[in-house]
Design brief:
The complex is a heterodimer. Helix content of chain A is 79%, strand content 0%. Chain A is mainly α. Chain A starts with a helix and ends with a helix. Chain B is mainly α. Chain B has a single domain, classed as Orthogonal Bundle (MetI-like fold). The chains are: A mainly alpha, B mainly alpha.
Chain lengths: 261, 241
Amino acid sequence: MSDIMASFSILKNESIWIYLLRGVAFTLVISVIAVVIAILLGAVLALVRNYCKKGWCVIFRWIATIYIELFRNTPLLLWIFICLVFFPCPDLFSRPMLTLTSVETKLIFKAAVALTLFESSVIAEIIRGGLNSVAEGQFEAGHSQGFSSVQIMIYIVLPQAFRSIVPTLLGQVITTVKDSSYLANVATIELMARTKKILSSANMYNGTGQINVSDVFVLFGVAAMIYFIINFTLSCVVRKIQKKRRVTPRVVEQELQLEAS
Amino acid sequence: MAGLLSQDAWGKVWTYRGTFAMGFLNTLLVAAVGVLLSLILGIIFGLMGASGKRILKGISRVYVEAIQNTPLLLQICFLYYALAFSGKSIGIIPTGILSVGIYHGAYMAEVFRAGIESIPKGQFEAAASQGFGYIGRMYYIILPQSIKIILPPMVNQVVNLIKNTSCLYIIGGTDLISLTYSFVTGEATGGAYAPAYVVSGILFFIMCFPLSTIATVWEQNLKKRDARTVDTRKEGKAVTA
């Protein structure tokens, strides 16, 4: 019992909370940046893989296909290790900022690049699914109205494709927030890594002079709660959208039945 | 990238090919047993989620939400350290199997639940009226119909599970990724970054690519067939009207 009280006394330490919450901020910032860039990159990859089918364009299609399959079928951690060694870091990021040392900013930049590349391949496949769900007639209708192929993409196809994949994309944001914990393997910056670091020196904070099992429960419990709050909020949004969507086919079916009778 | 063409570096990888083979086998072992565990958990909690009984549904929801909304890395660290500090350590590989199994079990449960719920209610009622018990109903009537819907996302989860075996690195595992990393940073073997990463990447790719391709093909076939059946249904209605 006294162990548990000692473990909770860690949480009374204000500097530990500041340290953890900075980790949360880094987790969120990295995930958001990774998702935004991955959506842009993924949209380009999906368009190229789906529509570059003629002439010399085929080369780009092959490149996009190889890129997507390569990143989709190998683990994120491998790409983090590869980017740490081979990805060049611009000078802009190799300096101390936001309470991080220049070594840490370099590490986090490279690891975030790996995360972005990895997520972009998954998001590309999601967007491709959305593109394939747009009916062929939409293209023909667009052409008949005098739209060019690029205009059809921007004004007709992409808006419809994105509308149908919003729930899946939000689900992928949850996955990205979780995947960002893989950065804990290389640097002590985001929430997961910081929790682990506090645990490894918990004996200095809990007053009993050693690390107890209850420390594991309290510290990882706090981290799990934080992750849960972030992700559960998102998944509630997903479910709300899906529920709204599910109404539509039923209406169509009812109309069909009305017509049939 | 210069290391990619260095004969010396490739020689090093070849000399230590046993390390990579061991990592590959360990990853396969974790993945195989993990898949088995996740399937068992997935079926149990999936059936509970689709059972319509409030308590069972609630238990299944708590499991799925708690696991799906926290990172795997956190779960494996929690399991490992909780066992280690209470003096009941069960070893790294079993810890890894347990945590990936439980983590993907939550996803499998959702897959099974969605598959079962996609079957029209009339099928359940018809089966019950023919005197099938719960197990017979599920086994003979419901699961054979939903398996087509269940299989593609299930195989995708298997691919994710194989990739997620890399989480063993954080507790110092002996899976493919961890061994690759200790190979490239080791004192005697260090430096052969490019060839080592290429080899490990290829090994993962040959595990995952066939599975993810199968899943995609199945999914596309399913969509095509769906489109066809919907069309005929519409036509049929038009005819009767």
